[in-house]
């Protein structure tokens, strides 16, 4: 039987979905995890955060420019949205879409405001996923935990 | 001449499919790699489009399929797609987080065989082998090595893919490739998969260079484009006319492939896949195609009148319901046709050949006009259309009209389906003017008059054509059109096959040439959307006579833009 720790992990995971942070892409990543890549999900998420930091710097640099280059911003955010979709970061993705809509409307204020939301989601998810992975590691694989040593 | 590393997929296909994934997003790259590996594919990843292109160029046969992101900083995914399509004919799947129709459309128009939306699903990737398989399947049937085969390919794939659909086909045979036919005879198809033309290409057509090329082509216009002109316009030092010519050829191929991809489901003209070569009669006719049309309206008249005939020997045998003619064509010579047949009335007919015009006069049909015109120009300097052995076996649509057969032979009273088989027999290339002694009689003028023919099919079964078929000028205009037209090249088949009314069943029309057509290209393909075009009804029938289905074909309502005559210029 799953330990309390495991149940806690499961609850955390469920909350991430329930609160809209993650979508089914995350499930797909979990399914890809196997003996060859036992930490696949975490690796992917780590890679995402590493790479997205770079993308965000690009966006921030573009947001510094006056007047705003909406074309460039849109392109950057498109890239970012693509990355978000890779880990199933649902909330972030929808903020990205919002951002791009503002780009289309050439709405500077909307862009700036939305970017802050994107950034916030980015950070929130990072923390949540960080906790989740840490907890998962502590709990260990369910099978192992159940097996008598 | 197997030029690839042996691919491991012999038995396990699709396991071992070699996939190149190009995406600037490392996260996606990692995920896709994992997913593809789970599919037992052999994966290579690349985060830069330019690097990917270099890899592809380095060894063209290193990959079976490419999956590329659309948005990449160093090179637009569409550009990559275009380059790949141009240079190596690999299936390319595009992917993007963006599902805007316009973008997807752009990808497809650029030749993407699929367009996946991110997040890409495992099940979608599991299925990508089908694109490879589809392409291979087509390749087996024709050689890829030169335009003609590619174009024939187009025809054939149309045959393959449109079981119910209707497709217009135009075939253009270009004289410049005469030489290759001979070569083709000596190799089997597999060998021909290796590009003979690749050797020549030493110039790397970078994106910029290609862009210059495309600009030049656009500036000149497809109709008038030629290597020399392009070269002059591009003004790139070191570039030779041959380089440009070779690239132009690829570009045309590329465009024709695009067209092929874009139109297979068209529903206007029906090509129904008939049995392919496997079922060939003992004689070696690589090409067999048949078109059968079932007319529901029997009041139409089908006139078969001579036009210009260059056919020399035409033997027509009419066993019972079959009308078989063996014709050999000599360039620019008079047509002497002989009919030998069992039909009682057959005597001397002259000028069978040139299939004059078939017009449908019944106004009721006008809403669904089809044109069938075929011409083979007779000029000496043009190409031989059919060279080598058996080229085409063409069954033309059976026209279900009230056929007028002036031609005596329609002896059989029955209104049932009849088959006309015209065998292009031996065609001697030599200029000997007379080659005649084929049939017993000389055919002068054949027009068919028959009432209530349910189906009429023509079959061309060229057995031996060692020389050139140079003069066939067919100008057949009828509602159901299958056209063989010569615009200004050599041998052009232009089909305006139209989907007729539901009653009319255009059953088969397939040309397969095993690549024996020198250049079979889609030429001026026109999809006519006849439905609702009432204007046809107002046109006098005479108008059709004048139509050669060339560029000035006035009725095209929908024009298929991609490949037109201009692309097949010498």
Automatic annotation (TrEMBL), chain A:
GO biological process, alphabetically ordered: cytokinin-activated signaling pathway; phosphorelay signal transduction system
Asked whether the keyword DNA-binding is assigned, the reply is no
Tell me which InterPro entries the record gives.
Answer: AHP1-5/YPD1, HPT_dom_sf, Sig_transdc_His_kin_Hpt_dom
According to the UniProt record, list the residues that bear Phosphohistidine.
78
Localization annotation? Cytoplasm, Cytosol; Nucleus
UniProt cross-references to Pfam families, sorted A to Z = Hpt
Give UniProt keywords alphabetically. Answer: Cytokinin signaling pathway, Phosphoprotein, Two-component regulatory system
One GO molecular function term of this record is: histidine phosphotransfer kinase activity
Q: Does the keyword Nucleotide-binding apply?
A: no
Q: Which Gene3D superfamilies match?
A: HPT domain
The residues covered by the HPt domain are 37-132
Q: Any one cellular component term from GO for this entry? A: nucleus
Q: Read off the domain note.
A: Histidine-containing phosphotransfer domain (HPt) contains an active histidine that mediates the phosphotransfer.
Q: So what does this one do?
A: Functions as a two-component phosphorelay mediators between cytokinin sensor histidine kinases and response regulators (B-type ARRs). Plays an important role in propagating cytokinin signal transduction.
Q: What is this protein called?
A: Histidine-containing phosphotransfer protein
Organism listed in the record: Aristolochia fimbriata
Lineage of source species = Eukaryota, Viridiplantae, Streptophyta, Embryophyta, Tracheophyta
TrEMBL record, chain B:
Highest taxon in the source lineage: Eukaryota
What's a BP term from Gene Ontology annotated to this protein? cytokinin-activated signaling pathway
Spell out the InterPro entries in the cross-references: ARR-like, CheY-like_superfamily, Homeodomain-like_sf, Myb_dom, Myb_dom_plants, SANT/Myb, Sig_transdc_resp-reg_receiver
In this protein, which residues make up the domain named Response regulatory? 18-133
Q: Which cellular compartments is it found in? A: Nucleus
Q: Which PROSITE patterns match?
A: HTH_MYB (PS51294), RESPONSE_REGULATORY (PS50110)
- Keyword field contains NADP: no
State a GO cellular component annotated for this protein. Answer: nucleus
GO MF annotation terms: DNA binding
Residue spans crossing the bilayer = none
Q: Which UniProt keywords apply?
A: Activator, Cytokinin signaling pathway, DNA-binding, Nucleus, Phosphoprotein, Transcription, Transcription regulation, Two-component regulatory system
**Is the keyword Transferase in the record?**
no
Give all 4-aspartylphosphate modified positions. 69
The HTH myb-type domain, residue ranges:
197-256
- A Pfam family per the record: Response_reg
Question: CDD domains under this entry?
Answer: REC_typeB_ARR-like (cd17584)
Family the entry assigns: Belongs to the ARR family. Type-B subfamily.
Name by which UniProt lists this protein = Two-component response regulator
Q: Which species expresses this protein natively?
A: Aristolochia fimbriata (White veined hardy Dutchman's pipe vine)
| Phylogenetic placement of the source organism | Eukaryota, Viridiplantae, Streptophyta, Embryophyta, Tracheophyta
């Amino acid at each position: 039987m799953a330990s309390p720790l495991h149940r806690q992990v499961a609850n955390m995971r469920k909350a991430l979905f329930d609160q809209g942070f993650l979508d089914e892409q995350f499930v797909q990543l979990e399914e890809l995890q196997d003996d060859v890549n036992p930490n696949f999900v975490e690796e992917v998420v780590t890679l995402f955060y590493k790479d997205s930091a770079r993308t965000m710097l690009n966006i921030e640099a573009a947001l510094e420019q006056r007047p705003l280059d909406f074309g460039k911003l849109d392109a950057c955010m498109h890239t970012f949205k693509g990355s978000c979709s890779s880990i199933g970061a649902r909330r972030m993705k929808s903020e990205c879409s919002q951002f791009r809509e503002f780009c289309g409307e050439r709405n500077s204020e909307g862009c700036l405001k939305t970017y802050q939301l994107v950034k916030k989601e980015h950070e929130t998810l990072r923390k949540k996923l960080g906790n989740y992975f840490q907890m998962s590691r502590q709990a260990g694989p369910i099978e192992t935990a159940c097996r008598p040593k | 001449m197997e030029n690839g590393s042996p691919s491991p997929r012999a038995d396990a296909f699709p396991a071992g499919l070699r996939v190149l994934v190009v995406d600037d997003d490392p996260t996606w790259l990692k995920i896709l790699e994992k997913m593809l590996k789970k599919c037992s594919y052999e994966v290579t990843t690349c985060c830069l489009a330019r690097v990917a292109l270099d890899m592809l160029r380095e060894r063209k046969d290193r990959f079976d399929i490419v999956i590329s992101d659309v948005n990449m900083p160093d090179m637009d995914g569409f550009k990559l797609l275009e380059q790949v399509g141009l240079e190596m004919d690999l299936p390319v799947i595009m992917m993007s987080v963006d599902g805007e129709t316009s973008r997807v459309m752009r990808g497809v128009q650029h030749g993407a065989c699929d367009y996946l939306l991110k997040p890409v699903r495992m099940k979608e990737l599991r299925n990508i082998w089908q694109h490879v398989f589809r392409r291979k399947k087509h390749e087996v049937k024709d050689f890829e090595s030169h335009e003609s085969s590619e174009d024939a390919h187009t025809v054939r794939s149309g045959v393959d893919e449109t079981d119910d659909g209707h497709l217009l086909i135009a075939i253009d045979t270009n004289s410049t490739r005469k030489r290759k036919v001979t070569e083709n005879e000596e190799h089997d198809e597999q060998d021909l998969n290796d590009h003979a033309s690749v050797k020549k290409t030493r110039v790397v057509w970078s994106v910029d260079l290609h862009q210059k090329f495309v600009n030049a082509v656009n500036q000149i216009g497809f109709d008038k484009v030629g290597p020399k002109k392009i070269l002059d316009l591009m003004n790139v030092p070191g570039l030779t006319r041959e380089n440009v010519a070779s690239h132009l050829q690829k570009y045309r191929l590329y465009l024709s492939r695009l067209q092929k991809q874009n139109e297979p489901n068209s529903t206007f003209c029906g090509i129904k896949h008939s049995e392919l070569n496997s079922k060939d009669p003992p004689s070696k006719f690589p090409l067999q195609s048949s078109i059968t049309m079932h007319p529901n309206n029997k009041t139409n008249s089908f006139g078969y009148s001579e036009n210009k005939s260059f056919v020399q020997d035409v033997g027509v045998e009419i066993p019972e319901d079959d009308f078989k003619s063996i014709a050999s064509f000599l360039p620019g010579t008079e047509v002497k046709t002989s009919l030998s047949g069992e039909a009682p009335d057959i005597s001397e007919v002259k000028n069978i050949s040139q299939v004059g015009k078939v017009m449908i006069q019944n106004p009721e049909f006008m809403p669904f006009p089809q044109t069938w015109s075929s011409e083979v120009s007779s000029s000496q300097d043009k190409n031989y259309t059919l060279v080598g052995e058996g080229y085409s076996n063409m069954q033309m649509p059976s026209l279900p009209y009230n056929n007028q057969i002036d031609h005596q032979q329609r002896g059989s009273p029955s209104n049932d389906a009849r088959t006309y088989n015209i065998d292009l027999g031996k065609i001697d290339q030599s200029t000997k003017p007379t080659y005649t002694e084929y049939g017993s009689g000389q055919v002068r003028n054949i027009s068919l008059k028959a009432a209530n023919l349910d189906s009429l099919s023509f079959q061309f079964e060229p057995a031996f054509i060692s020389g050139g078929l140079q003069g066939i000028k067919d100008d057949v205009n009828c509602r159901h059109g299958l056209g063989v037209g010569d615009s200004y090249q050599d041998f052009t088949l232009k089909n305006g096959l139209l989907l007729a009314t539901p009653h009319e069943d255009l059953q088969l029309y397939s040309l397969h040439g095993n690549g024996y057509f020198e250049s079979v290209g889609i030429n001026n393909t026109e999809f006519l959307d006849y439905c609702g075009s009432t204007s046809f009804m107002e046109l006098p029938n005479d108008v059709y006579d004048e139509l050669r289905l060339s560029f000035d074909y006035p009725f095209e309502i929908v024009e298929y833009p991609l490949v037109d005559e201009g692309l097949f210029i010498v």
